[in-house]
Amino acid sequence: MHTSIQLRFCSSLAFLLCCSLVLHKASAQGVTPALFWSPEKPMSDLPEVNGVDPLSADLLEQQYLNPLLKHSAESAVVFLQDKLHVDDFTKFADVYSIDSDGGAFKNIKGFIEEHFSLELPQVEDPLKAVEKLKSSFAGVVHTAGSLEAVKKLNLQPKQKFLLIIELTPSTHVHDEEQAIASNDALVGAICNHLHKRSIKYTAMFTGKSASAGQWRNVDTYSGRHLLAEPVSKNGTGVFMNVSGMYFFLRDVQVYIKQKGVDNPTILNLTVTSSSADKSTVDNKTAMVQFDLSGTPDNGTEAYNVQILFNTTRKGDRWVIENILLTVEGAANAAASNGSLVESPLRTGDMDLVVPILYSYHCSRMKMYVDTIRHKELKDYEGTYVILNGLQMQPFNVQHDAFFNAQDCVGFFSRAIWMGIFSSLILLAILFFGVMMVLNLSTPDRFDDPKGKTIVIAQAEDN
Ligand SMILES: *[C@@H]1O[C@H](CO)[C@@H](O)[C@H](O)[C@H]1NC(C)=O
Ligand SMILES: *[C@@H]1O[C@H](CO)[C@@H](O)[C@H](O)[C@H]1NC(C)=O
Ligand SMILES: *[C@@H]1O[C@H](CO)[C@@H](O)[C@H](O)[C@H]1NC(C)=O
Ligand SMILES: *[C@@H]1O[C@H](CO)[C@@H](O)[C@H](O)[C@H]1NC(C)=O
Ligand SMILES: *[C@@H]1O[C@H](CO)[C@@H](O)[C@H](O)[C@H]1NC(C)=O
Ligand SMILES: *[C@@H]1O[C@H](CO)[C@@H](O)[C@H](O)[C@H]1NC(C)=O
Ligand SMILES: *[C@@H]1O[C@H](CO)[C@@H](O)[C@H](O)[C@H]1NC(C)=O
């Protein structure tokens, strides 16, 4: 019983949450949710709520307020908070905990669970509908702001009334959650008071408008959003827009190991907004070039590092053909053979084929210099590059933003294949084992008890 109620509230809040997500996209207006509950009156005959479109004030009045509050024999109570947004439930109703008691919305949650209830996730201007209801209401209309004021009112169980409760404003206060919680306590106290006086009622809880400043900051990202990883301690990285190609890169680390040099050189390179300025693109290929420079920890000489992505466009996909590393500086002087000039990097099992509209993303791209196929780089064995927080989309950028990203970690990583493969072997063993057990049969040749017995001729003994 308790669990089912819990589930119902969870699902209703999940619904509100879904709707709020849809709402951000669908409508820029501040729409607010409305919750109804009634101890006596079932609400199943009301129209289905469509989560996508906000309900207009007229429809709210005609389809919900009139049947619920006006034409029933019961009285009506309207709780009006100055601002209410679906996000307030996500923020303050403790929805992410399984044993949630409703957080700041404890009493309202209780009423919704225990009584007949209905949630309208998005209503436009409910205040207008309430004003209309007020002007056309058949019974007495009261307005109150506190429990004391309600107690003083001469409310009779037999007499139909409309009670409008103006809750304390929850915006421009120090602690919004505290303000909501005290309003919720007032809602609980008033409903219990009405219950004690045996007054039958239907209640509505809503806001005059959506919470300020909540819907405004939605959908304003430009560029990267899919990737919005927790910001690393060293800032958020740099977004680059080079002739319509979009790049994002946080930082780069280069580890240069050379034969004959004792200490490896470690370069922590920072990315600037002009790092990719030398990148070029045409209809078929894009050469994405990051130019970075930095000095090692205790060194003095500056190193220039260039990382070049050679990408080509192939019909419905684009491919990173190869990635080349160039290091200019002291690193090349010590090596007797070869130097790090356009040296190919090993991309291992990274998935470098990307659907044409997609961007490419890698949170940590670690690539060693390819000394296996390029023997001239043997002196640099163990040299590697790490690109942190890379996202790039050289082709088909639309709507001034990265499209969905394909991640460098393929769907089937090596570990997954290992798991699948060994499970298949075990399953095969099990299969043959079961088949062998099924093949066992009882012997079908027994002595026939009714047939002739076997007679064994015996030689006569003398
Ligand atoms: C960047 O992070 C490193 C450790 O990862 C830290 O030592 C360094 O102070 C940070 N730099 C800035 C500018 O925050
Ligand atoms: C990127 O640059 C192009 C022109 O090269 C411009 O049309 C587009 O608005 C820019 N996008 C962003 C997010 O700055
Ligand atoms: C790119 O394609 C457009 C039309 O699709 C064409 O007009 C233009 O010449 C092409 N540019 C190059 C460099 O191929
Ligand atoms: C470079 O970054 C690594 C890892 O973030 C850190 O351990 C190292 O101290 C950094 N070196 C410098 C010179 O900042
Ligand atoms: C850099 O520092 C390390 C130890 O901190 C030292 O072993 C190495 O010799 C130094 N390198 C240079 C070029 O000073
Ligand atoms: C880019 O890759 C293609 C295909 O592998 C190759 O033909 C072309 O030479 C490469 N360009 C550079 C500058 O490496
Ligand atoms: C340099 O290359 C030559 C021939 O290619 C080779 O004999 C020699 O051992 C190499 N030197 C080093 C230090 O690897």
Question: Can you walk through the features of this model?
Answer:
The chain is α+β, with helices and mostly antiparallel strands and 462 residues long. The protein has 2 domains: 2-209, no CATH class; 238-407, Beta Barrel (Porin). Helix content is 27%, strand content 28%. The chain is built from 9 helices and 19 strands. The protein has helices at residues 2-26, 57-70, 86-92, 106-114, 126-136, 147-152, 176-196, 331-334, 414-439; strands at 32-38, 75-83, 116-123, 140-144, 161-166, 201-209, 238-242, 245-249, 251-256, 265-270, 280-281, 285-294, 303-314, 317-328, 343-344, 353-355, 359-368, 384-393, 405-407. The strands form 3 sheets. Strands 7, 8, 9, 10, 17, 18 and 19 form a 7-stranded mixed sheet that branches. The chain has a 6-stranded mixed sheet with strand order 3-1-6-2-5-4, sandwiched between helices. Strands 11, 12, 13, 14, 15 and 16 form a 6-stranded antiparallel sheet that branches. β4, α6 and β5 (161-166) form a beta-alpha-beta unit. Bound molecules: 2-acetamido-2-deoxy-beta-D-glucopyranose (7 copies). The site of one 2-acetamido-2-deoxy-beta-D-glucopyranose has 2 residues, from loops. Residues 310, 321-322 line the site of one 2-acetamido-2-deoxy-beta-D-glucopyranose.
